[in-house]
Write a structure and sequence with these properties.
Pfam families: HTH_3
GO molecular function, one term: DNA binding
Order of helices and strands: HHHHHHHHHHHHHHHHH
InterPro entries: Cro/C1-type_HTH (IPR001387), Lambda_DNA-bd_dom_sf (IPR010982)
Strand content: under 5%
Number of strands: 0
Domain HTH cro/C1-type: 10-64
Protein name: HTH cro/C1-type domain-containing protein
Helix content: over 70%
Structural class: mainly alpha
Length: 291
């Protein structure tokens, strides 16, 4: 199992519980092998990792998803910060930097992930697409085995989809969102970070489609609302999906009363970040359809 992501995470959890290296390794692997894995100097079989997790009372799904999530977010943290702060010049710098690296080394998946995310954010803020047709093919090829039924969705795939949708064709976005939604319905998962990632990625897909293909956006909206079985503690996700639904109705009727009411409620509830995001989305829709 990849030591760069998981070894350090296990070491942190072990130390939090004040479990010594020798005690954790006992009956599973050698103290040296475990130490090497924790410090990124060696590998451990997946079966042994499962036994180690059992010993420190950590569920495998929580360990795997949170570890990958932390790794991915750390990998793109500077890019995400530039996007949140509307630093277009920085995004352009990151995009060009990592595109150059990934073009020179086609096996460098990390640099290509960074390049794709930076280009996605840059396009969202400027409407300028920095990627080539080869880059786009490389992005969609990441999901080929999932679409062909050879692999299942994991956190890395969901993160990649959620942060590259502006670079995909509407048909590809819909196909991937359909696949992810189907997987969500068939494979229940109680991990909160997983649920957040899945639902927000699907909502993001709907909004990108609203801006690019209204028919596919309407189809996805109907699909999501058929079995949108989120519990009450996922209020933000429910609010976001409902806003997408109201945007579609607004485009059809030009009746902005429901949109105005939602924005007013968010203001009363002091949800300023969410309100700002909705206002930006509303402005983008008006610019696309009514100007």
């Amino acid at each position: 199992m990849n030591n760069q992501i998981f070894g350090l995470k296990f070491r942190q959890l072990r130390k939090q519980q004040h479990i010594t290296l020798a005690k954790a390794a006992a009956g599973i692997t050698s103290r040296q092998s475990l130490g090497n894995w924790e410090t990124g100097k060696g590998e451990l079989a997946f079966e042994k990792v499962l036994l180690l997790l059992k010993k420190i009372n950590v569920q495998p799904i929580d360990f795997l998803e949170s570890s990958i999530s932390s790794y991915l977010k750390q990998t793109t943290s500077q890019i995400s910060a530039a996007y949140v702060n509307n630093q277009v010049d920085k995004l352009l710098h990151y995009a060009n930097k990592y595109l150059d690296i990934s073009h020179r080394n086609l096996t460098d998946r990390v640099s290509f992930l960074r390049a794709a995310v930076a280009c996605n954010y840059y396009m969202d803020l400027t409407s300028i697409d920095l990627t080539t047709s080869s880059d786009k093919l490389r992005i969609i090829s990441h999901f080929n085995k999932i679409l062909n039924g050879e692999e299942i969705w994991n956190f890395e795939d969901i993160y990649f989809l959620g942060n590259t949708q502006n670079l995909m064709s509407p048909r590809d976005i819909y196909s991937l969102a359909y696949s992810l939604n189907y997987y969500r319905q068939k494979h229940k998962n109680d991990n909160r970070e997983w649920i957040n990632a899945v639902y927000n990625t699907l909502i993001n897909a709907e909004f990108v489609l609203i801006k690019t293909n209204i028919k596919l956006a309407t189809d996805l909206d109907l699909l999501l609302r058929q079995k949108w079985d989120l519990p009450d503690n996922y209020a933000f996700e429910k609010i976001r999906q409902n806003f997408m639904h109201e945007l579609l109705k607004y485009i059809s009727t030009q009746d902005e009363s429901a949109i105005t009411q939602q924005l007013h409620i968010l203001e009363l509830e002091h949800l300023s970040d969410l309100k700002t995001g909705f206002e930006t989305a509303y402005e983008q829709v008006n610019k696309i359809y009514f100007q």
